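Sample log: 3-methyl-2-oxobutanoate hydroxymethyltransferase.
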Amino acid sequence: MTLQAAPKQPADSAKALYGGKGTRRITVLDLAGAKERGEKWPMLTAYDAMTASVFDEAGIPVILVGDSMGNCHLGYDTTVPVTMDEMALLSAAVVRGTRRALVVGDLPFGSYQEGPVQALRSATRLVKEAGVGAVKLEGGERSLPQTEMLVQAGIPVMSHLGLTPQSVNTMGYRVQGRGDEAAHRLLRDAKAAQDAGAFAVVLELVPAELAAEVTRSLHIPTIGIGAGPDTDAQVLVWTDMAGLTGGKVPRFTKQYADLRQTLGDAARAFAGEVVGGTFPQEEHTFH
Ligand code: KIV
């Protein structure tokens, strides 16, 4: 007799990560459950309490305080200059702005590359000072001692593979994992991260077929950005997703709003009324 694989059940709405009814904070165990159920989920970045509260109320189950704050919030050209002080400050704000989402704090460049002890010190700071539920670090095999140390200490680790922006000075911004050798290396990195105890793997700018193979090969969730439709989850940088980022945005992002236009229009309307003497009016005035 041949055993047939059980068909995937529709997401149980009490447990579902997106659209679920639960009000407690989501944990990495909930993400493991979603992988087992074959349920896809969204992740967004946030860098302040107010934006994070909007995403939390919208039901986004995982919010990443990404070091993309360097480009998107702090005015740097890359993620490289972001410091632990900046990460701790903004992660704490995001945690304060949310009630349900799992908040993941990024370990910035220079905060874990020295080795596991430095990684533990940095991650502990984000957990204790900012209250994040997990941390993210870049690299598979090259960051294994760090991942193992954090997991042993009880800190959930999200691994980041493919294009790793902290290595922009050696890697540039190019699709990773093209060609057999590079694809095998990426698959090896993903399995190594899983074996070291990572609870999820971000795949950035990776060919869709390779991301699908990694997703099938792992029992932990994959989170794609520029990695095609077959990863378990998708992440976007919020300012790209909402159309606030100025200039050219990467081809793999999709703009779901035009906040840059909307905010600019609001600012121009306010300025016009101040200059024209029509704001404030009686209803905005105290006597
Ligand atoms: O810093 C960030 O926002 C990220 C995502 C793009 C995954 O690492």
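Observation: Strands lie at 41-45, 62-65, 102-106, 134-138, 157-162, 200-204, 222-225, 233-236.
Observation: The first strand starts at residue 41 and ends at 45.
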